[in-house]
UniProtKB/TrEMBL annotation:
It comes from the Bacteria. It is found in: Cell membrane. Gene3D superfamilies: MFS general substrate transporter like domains. Its main location: membrane. Keywords: Cell membrane, Membrane, Transmembrane, Transmembrane helix. The chain crosses the membrane at residues 12-36, 42-65, 85-105, 111-129, 150-172, 219-241, 247-266, 286-306, 312-338. This is Major Facilitator Superfamily protein. It comes from Caballeronia choica. It is a multi-pass membrane protein. One of its GO terms (cellular component) is plasma membrane.
Amino acid sequence: MGRLVDATPRKKALLCAGQLTVLLFTMTAIAVHHYAIAIGDFSMLIALTIALAGASLLAGGALDYFLRICIPDGARARRIASMNIVTQIALITGTGAAGFAASIMTIETALIIPSLCAATCAILCLLCLPDLRVGKSAEHKRTGWGAIHAVLYFQFPVLFSIACCGALVFSIGQVTNMLLPGLIAFFLKLGSINYSTIEAAWSIGAFSVSACLAMMKKALGGGIGCDLLIISSMSVVLALVPFAPAFSVLIAMHFALGAGFAFVRIRTETRFLEDCPVHLLGRFRANSMALTSVAGLLIYCIPLIWSDALISSLYLSIAAVILVAAVILLAVSPSVLLTKSRASSK
């Protein structure tokens, strides 16, 4: 799919197609449920989830081209930070609205909401974005039709470090999503309001950092090594979460985790758009998402394999793995982390 993003000249049409795919499959899910087709609700949801993941890859890969070509290098970090602010607002309001909608509506009515959102996004893309066309270059034609193109990381090692950095910081978020409900309900014996407060603290931390970066006129210095040190610090905080002496400390920890997550994510996204060759944006975005998905799959499998483990043990073990991975990446590739990629040197 990443190769498809790179090979399609009309990026605006591709971005609209990603949104319309969301609309198509959401409406299909409504029809399947309404007419009680034998596929079953659970199978329908699995198919819908896979389709939405593919659509997000199409739309996200096309959006990378707009961010790379239409936004100057000096303003890109601020623009990405501004987008992250909007994302945090959408996540907070969307999550709350989804829970409310699911509690008062039928599944068919609730699924109309993402359908309308997808249709609105497609219309806005069609009306507001420039007609961006990127033709096939000589480098594009030489690359070939490989499936995952992981071999490209040998040509651009900095991009592998960027992808690993993004996967590690997303892993911290995935650990929190997986273990926090159990920590609140069974380990700390607290209620849903406490869970919501902690999730809000994470989002407020991410929002605050995004707002600060959006207002900065100059990009922050430091290479990927700086981000890996932040990830290492975040993994230590993550390991200490189940041992927080007070609920206020737990809130402060997740505020710090959310702030670190947003900081590393914005810098990683900016660095990716600056260092990745234009004709490989789709493939490297797909590679990065695959690496993040593999990391998430391993994290979510740990409680299934180690089913009798305490929540505190899971926090400690997974945080230790993330810390070791960050330290190894920092130690074994100092030349990669301190030098520019082949793309940026050109």
